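debug: dumping io for the single-chain case to check the tokenizer round-trip. Nothing else runs in this session.
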Amino acid sequence: MSLIQEIVIDDRDDLVRFCMDFDQGKYTEKFWTDRMNSWWDKNPYFSESDCRGFKILNNDTIQGFIGLVPQEMMVAGEVRKVFSLTTWRVLEEARSQSMMAFLKCLQVTKDTLLFNTTPNDVVQAILPKFQFELSPQAVDETKNQMLLLPVRPHRLVALVRDGKLAGFALPLLPFSAVLNLFYRLYLRFRLKGSTNSFLIRKLTGDEPEIDELWDQSKDIYATTNIRDKCFYSWAYHDNYTHPLELVGCYDQGNLAALFLVDYEHNQKFNYATVVDIWHGSMENRSLLNSLTCLLYYLTKSEADAVKILDFRPEVRKHLRKLGCFQLERSDRTDYLRCANKQLLENIKNQSCYFSVVQGDRFI
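debug: decoded output
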């Protein structure tokens, strides 16, 4: 007979083995150990009173698992502990208990926000039936919107030469190196101007000016991530399973903006994806110059193109001025649940900023 029990610290080794076996060894023991450490042991927001999630047992053997990862956020102007669902996986013989484990997660998080940002197609179909909805954004969109800045256009030509655009791309191939050189010089010249007082550099997450920037800017949005040293050090500097780069932009020696960048490398193409943007002021000149500096910094990386994922119209407006163009991607999957209807209304009626770092994508 199957039992559903709350996960305890002594379950760690069994959970690691279960996840490895479920993926048929796709990820190593170290990967799962590091990931669970990030969820709980190295998570500064986790306390022993928090629920880690639930396991499905049969004869003392784990046959199913659904995890919960805590984090603190500003929610409707107040600091609240929120949770993210992660790694919902159940063996075929225990599927009859899968929904019960899911419902237990809903019960223990009923007084706060619960995120699910990486659902598969089956889970995505059932989420709306349990009060999950797409996270509120500055614009009402059901598709992921991406802004793209080509850095090495000759690589784009190489990508499409065998596809639908082959008729257009093939004549350009002999000239691609020359076109790439002139385009990169133009891009550098355009992005370098008007930002002489700005400096951009890679950060560790431990710089004291990060907390100073947060203290100065935390009232811009009533609902958003708390972007202090604790947040950056935990989720990104100490994250070994999906490391991100933290970049800071300084205006006359003062930290003005923070960016999180995810580098995607594969055999065909390299992307630098900006997954989170935090700016200390939404004043147009400062915001535009900070974004300009970021793009200039990324053009010197190994990226063939820069992708920026941000829903805010004011950010998109500036990026389009800098030569980025907008593409529509797949359906959004950034779901949240708030059983407290009054709290949910407060979130929707006040300023909010949700980014793709919500949930468990990068932890």
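debug: round-trip ok. The CA atoms of residues 134 and 335 lie 4 Å apart.
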